[in-house]
Design a protein that fits this description.
Elements: E1 19-25, H1 31-42, E2 47-53, E3 58-63, H2 70-79, E4 84-86, H3 103-130, H4 146-158, H5 162-173, H6 179-199, H7 210-233, H8 235-242, E5 247-251, H9 261-267, E6 274-277, E7 286-289, E8 298-303, E9 306-309, H10 311-314, E10 320-322, E11 327-328, E12 333-334, E13 339-345, H11 351-362, H12 369-403, E14 409-412, E15 415-418, H13 429-443, H14 446-466, E16 469-471, H15 474-481, E17 485-489, H16 490-494, E18 500-506, H17 512-523, H18 529-540, E19 548-554, E20 558-563, E21 566-571, H19 573-578, H20 585-596, E22 600-606, E23 609-617, H21 624-633, E24 637-641, H22 646-656, E25 663-664, H23 669-681, E26 686-690, H24 696-701, E27 704-708, H25 713-718, E28 721-723, H26 730-763, H27 768-771, H28 777-803
Parallel strand pairs: 17-24, 17-26, 24-25, 26-27, 27-28
Antiparallel strand pairs: 1-3, 1-4, 2-3, 5-6, 5-7, 7-13, 8-11, 8-13, 9-10, 9-12, 14-15, 16-28, 18-23, 19-20, 20-21, 21-22, 22-23
Helix pairs in contact: 1-12, 3-4, 3-7, 4-6, 4-7, 5-6, 6-7, 6-13, 7-28, 8-14, 12-13, 12-14, 13-26, 13-28, 14-26, 14-28, 15-26, 17-18, 26-28
C-alpha cells in the first residue's frame, strides 16, 4: 500500500520503478567516512543516489532493483571497514532474525565497550602522571623509569587504542583515510620515535612515551562525551520510535464472518485472543484492545466504546471518545474501555510508521550549505597528512636554523623554556619536528565538520516530530530560512473546508427544493468541499437524488451531468457563460450582493437556462488570523491564492488580516503554479500552503511547500513540511523551528571551520617563533575532542531554545 507521507522515486529509464532501502552502517567516525561510504555506494552499478547520516548511522540508497542487490551493497561496505546490514523491522517468516543486529542494541554494546576502554586508558593516564611526580620532587620508585612508561604506552596501544589503530590502518589500506588514521599515525609515530630513543640512547633523542598514553586517553574520553551528547540528541527520535506498538491481541474471527459480528459486539471481551507481533497483523483482521494498551494498528472500531489519548498524534491531551465506526490510529493509547477493531493499515503503512520513516529519511537529506563541508571532508585527511609532512620538513630543515636566534624561547632537552634573551638551541631538531607534525595530525578534526549539520537536523526533526511537524530534510531548513513570502490557499487551508449553504434562490419556475435537488444530484459525482456542502444541504431536507448519468468535472470551474434528459451544470458564472448559458442582470446583481457578504455563489443551469443560485459560506479557521499576524511580525509577506470569486476572497482575506493587494482571486488550478512562478521571477522566495489536488502544481513550484495532514494524498506527497495536527498555527512553529535549526547548523559549521583554520596552524608551530607557544600531541588531542563535543552540545541547545 502506497504511503502518502513517503516519496516514491520514479525510474524514467525502465519500467520497474526505483526503490529506496535503508542501511545501518557502523564504523563511521567523521565526515570523511560519510564521504567514503557515499562514494562507495554511488560507484556501484544500479545505485541512483545515496545519502548517509553520520549521527544516526543510516544510509538511504535509491537503486534500480533490476541492476543491484541491496545485500551486495551491505557486503561491500562491510569489506572496507564499515559493518553494514539491511534495515529490518521484524523477524522473517521463519521467526529467525537472520543474523540481524538491532542498531539500538549494537549502540549499547559499543557504549559498554567504550566505557571499558576509557576506564583502562584513564588508569594508564593516572599511572603515567604518577610516574612524573619526580618533576615536583616526589620520587616514586619504579614508576619514574623509562621502561615503566614504555610499558604504559605499549598497553595503551594494544589495549584501548587497538581499535583506533586497526580502523585507521584499514582506512589507509582502502585509500579512505579517516580520523582514526590521523590519530593512529600520530600515536604510532610518537611511540616508534620513543622506542628508537630508548634502544639507541647515543642518538641523544628524548623518549616521550607519555604522549601516546595521554593522546589516546583524551581522545577516548572525548569520544565518550561526544557519544553521550549524540545519544541525547537522538532522544526525540527514540521517543518517537518508542510510540510504535509491538504487540496485538488477535481475535480468531476472520473478515467476512458477518454472522459472527453481532455476537462480537456483545461478548468480544470474553473471546479468547492470541497475542502476536503488531507487525504480523494483516489488513482485515479483528483485534482486541484492552484499557491501558496501545492501539496496535490503524483501524476502525467495530465493537465497544472508549476514550483514546491521541496526544502523540495531535498534541492535544484531552481524551477523544471512540465508538463503533470511528477511525483509530496506531500508537494512540486506549484509556477507559475495551474495544474491538478491524485493521485497515498495518506494518509500515500505519500512520506512526510513516511518521518514523519520514523523519528518518529527512535526517539524511542534507542542506546545500553542507555540500561545502562534504567536499572539504573528502580531501580533509589527505590535506592534514600533507600539512603534517610539510610541518616536519619545514622545522627539521629550515625552522630551527631560521629562528634559532629569536629571543624569548630556548629549546632544551625537548622542553620549551622561556628566557629573556635566550637562543633557540636543541640537540635534536628531529624531536621538535616530530612533535609538531604529530600535533598537526591529532588536532585536525573532520569530526566537527561531519557532525555540524546532522546533529542539528537530528534534534530539529526530532523536536518537530514531537510537535507534529514533519520536515523532510536539511535542504528544506535552508530554504525556509530564506523565505520572504507565504502564500495560503483559501478553501480548506485558511478556512475549515466545511462550508454550509446559506442561501438558495430559485429562478424561472422551479422551487427552492428543486434547485437544491438538481444541484445535489450533479455534485454527487465530485468531492469538492462546495459539492459536499450542497449534498449535505439536500440530505438535511431529505431530498432524494435524481437519476443521472455522464458526470463530468471541470477542475476549478464546476460539474455537470445529464439529469432527466437535461444537461445540468453547477459552477462559476464564467464557465456557464462559456457553455452558452445566459445570466440575467437581476440574477447577476443578486450574486454580487451575496459575494460582497463573503459567500461563494454557485450558478445552477438546465441546458442554457439559469434556474437558480446557491450561496455557500466557508468559516475561517479559528487560528487563521493569529497565524497571519505572527507571520507578518516575523517579517514575512502573507498572500492568498484562490480560485474563488474576488468578492469572496476579499471578505475572507479581510477577516484573516491579509491586505487586499495581496489577494489573488479567480485563479484557475493550472494558473496557480504560474502565479507562484511570477513571484519567484521577481526574486522572491515563496512558501505555498495548500491542501487540495488543485494546489499540487503550486506546491511543487514553490520554494517551500507546506500541507496539512488532512490534505489530499497528492498534496501531502508534494509538501516538504506536513502539519500533522492540522493546526494552521503550526506554520509559524515550523518556520521558527526551521530558522533555529539552520542557525544552529551555521554556528556549528562556523566553529568547525574556524577551529581547524586556527588550530592546525597553531599546532604546526606558527606561534612558536614569536610567542614560544607550541602544542604537545596530548594537548592537541584534548582540544580536538573538545571540538567535536562542543558541536554536538550546541545542537542540544536547539531543543531548549525551540521549546522556550
Amino acid at each position: 500500500m502506497h504511503s502518502p507521507l513517503l516519496d516514491t522515486a520514479p525510474n524514467t529509464t525502465q519500467d520497474t520503478p526505483n526503490l529506496t532501502i535503508a542501511l545501518d552502517v557502523g564504523g563511521m567516525k567523521c565526515a570523511g567516512c560519510v564521504k567514503a561510504v557515499e562514494s562507495q555506494l554511488t560507484q556501484q552499478a544500479g545505485v541512483v543516489s545515496a545519502a548517509v547520516n553520520l549521527v544516526t548511522e543510516v544510509a538511504m540508497v535509491e537503486y534500480c532493483p533490476e541492476a543491484v542487490n541491496p545485500t551486495d551493497l551491505a557486503h561491500r561496505l562491510t569489506e572496507i571497514g564499515f559493518p553494514t546490514q539491511l534495515r529490518q523491522t521484524s523477524a522473517d517468516p521463519d521467526g529467525e532474525t537472520s543474523g540481524y543486529v538491532d542498531p539500538t542494541e549494537r549502540h549499547r554494546q559499543e557504549a559498554r565497550t567504550q566505557l571499558w576502554r576509557v576506564a583502562i586508558a584513564s588508569i594508564l593516564l593516572v599511572l603515567s602522571g604518577i610516574g612524573h611526580l619526580d618533576h615536583f620532587g616526589w620520587h616514586v620508585p619504579g614508576l619514574s623509569s623509562i621502561e615503566f612508561h614504555w610499558g604504559l604506552a605499549t598497553l595503551a596501544l594494544i589495549g584501548p587504542g587497538r581499535s583506533i589503530l586497526v580502523d585507521g590502518w584499514r582506512g589507509l589500506r582502502h585509500n579512505i583515510p579517516n580520523m582514526n588514521s590521523l590519530i593512529g599515525l600520530g600515536a604510532i609515530t610518537a611511540y616508534t620515535t620513543s622506542v628508537v630513543a630508548l634502544l639507541v640512547p647515543q642518538l641523544g633523542w628524548e623518549c616521550f612515551f607519555d604522549e601516546p598514553v595521554m593522546l589516546l586517553g583524551f581522545i577516548l574520553l572525548g569520544r565518550t562525551l561526544e557519544q553521550q551528547a549524540r545519544t541525547r540528541a537522538a532522544a526525540a527520535m527514540q521517543s518517537l520510535i518508542a510510540l510504535k506498538p509491538t504487540l496485538a491481541r488477535l481475535i480468531p474471527i476472520q473478515e467476512g464472518s458477518e454472522a459472527a459480528q453481532p455476537a462480537l459486539a456483545t461478548n468480544f471481551t470474553t473471546l479468547a485472543s492470541v497475542e502476536i507481533l503488531a507487525e504480523k497483523v494483516k489488513v482485515g483482521e479483528w483485534l482486541q484492545v484492552l484499557p491501558g494498551e496501545k492501539i496496535p494498528v490503524d483501524g476502525q472500531v467495530i465493537a465497544g466504546q472508549t476514550t483514546v489519548d491521541e496526544a502523540m498524534l495531535t498534541g492535544e491531551s484531552v481524551p477523544v471518545a471512540k465508538q463503533t465506526g470511528d477511525v483509530i490510529t496506531a500508537g494512540t493509547l486506549n484509556q477507559t474501555g475495551a474495544i474491538a477493531i478491524r485493521a485497515t493499515r498495518t506494518g509500515k503503512d500505519t500512520t506512526i510508521a510513516q511518521i518514523i520513516a519520514l523523519v528518518e529519511a529527512a535526517q539524511t537529506r542534507k542542506a546545500p550549505i553542507q555540500r561545502l563541508a562534504d567536499t572539504i571532508a573528502g580531501y580533509f585527511t589527505y590535506g592534514v597528512m600533507a600539512i603534517a609532512l610539510l610541518t616536519f620538513l619545514f622545522w627539521y630543515f629550515m625552522g630551527i636554523p631560521l629562528f634559532g636566534d629569536v629571543p624569548g624561547v630556548m629549546l632544551q632537552s625537548g622542553h620549551l623554556m622561556h628566557a629573556s634573551h635566550a637562543v633557540m638551541t636543541h640537540p635534536s631538531p628531529l624531536l621538535l619536528s616530530l612533535k609538531l607534525a604529530i600535533a598537526v595530525l591529532v588536532i585536525a578534526c573532520p569530526c566537527a565538520l561531519g557532525l555540524a549539520t546532522p546533529t542539528a537536523i537530528l534534534v530539529g526533526c526530532g523536536v518537530g516530530a514531537e510537535q507534529g511537524l514533519l520536515i523532510r530534510g536539511g535542504d528544506v531548513l535552508e530554504k525556509v530560512h530564506r523565505l520572504q513570502t507565504v502564500v495560503f490557499d483559501k478553501t480548506g487551508t485558511l478556512t475549515t473546508g466545511h462550508p454550509v449553504i446559506t442561501d438558495c434562490l430559485p429562478l424561472a419556475d422551479l422551487s427552492t427544493a428543486s434547485v437544491l435537488q438538481l444541484a445535489a444530484t450533479v455534485e454527487s459525482g465530485t468531492r469538492h468541499p462546495l459539492a459536499e456542502a450542497i449534498r449535505q444541504g439536500a440530505q438535511q431536507q431529505e431530498l432524494l437524488l435524481l437519476p443521472a448519468q455522464n458526470f463530468q468535472t471541470e477542475s476549478g470551474q464546476g460539474a455537470l451531468a445529464q439529469v432527466e434528459g437535461y444537461v445540468v451544470r453547477v459552477g462559476t458564472s464564467d464557465w456557464l457563460v462559456q457553455s452558452g448559458v445566459s445570466i440575467p442582470n437581476a440574477a447577476q446583481a443578486q450574486a454580487i450582493a451575496l459575494s460582497n457578504m463573503g459567500k461563494t455563489v454557485c450558478y445552477v443551469a438546465k441546458d442554457t437556462t439559469l434556474v437558480g443560485l446557491i450561496a455557500v459560506q466557508d468559516t475561517l479557521r479559528p487560528d487563521a488570523s493569529a497565524t497571519v499576524h505572527h507571520l507578518q511580525k516575523m517579517g514575512l509577506r502573507v498572500m492568498m491564492l484562490t480560485g474563488d470569486q474576488p468578492a469572496v476572497a476579499a471578505a475572507i482575506a479581510q477577516r484573516a488580516g491579509i491586505s487586499a493587494q495581496d489577494v489573488f482571486a479567480g485563479v484557475r488550478p493550472e494558473a496557480k503554479a504560474a502565479t507562484i512562478s511570477q513571484l519567484q521571477q521577481q526574486g522572491v522566495k515563496v512558501a505555498m500552503i495548500g491542501d487540495g489536488i488543485n494546489d499540487a502544481p503550486a506546491l511543487a513550484q514553490a520554494d517551500v511547500s507546506i500541507s496539512l495532514h488532512s490534505s489530499t494524498a497528492v498534496a501531502i506527497e508534494t509538501a516538504e513540511i506536513v502539519l500533522m495536527r492540522d493546526r494552521l498555527q503550526d506554520v509559524v512553529q515550523a518556520i521558527r523551528l526551521s530558522r533555529a535549526t539552520f542557525n544552529t547548523i551555521r554556528q556549528n559549521l562556523f566553529w568547525a571551520f574556524a577551529y581547524n583554520i586556527v588550530g592546525i596552524p597553531v599546532a604546526a608551530g606558527v606561534l612558536l617563533p614569536t610567542l614560544g607557544i607550541v602544542l604537545s600531541p596530548a594537548v592537541a588531542g584534548a582540544i580536538m575532542a573538545f571540538s567535536s563535543v562542543s558541536v554536538v552540545t550546541n545542537s542540544l541547545f536547539l531543543r531548549r531554545m525551540v521549546k522556550d
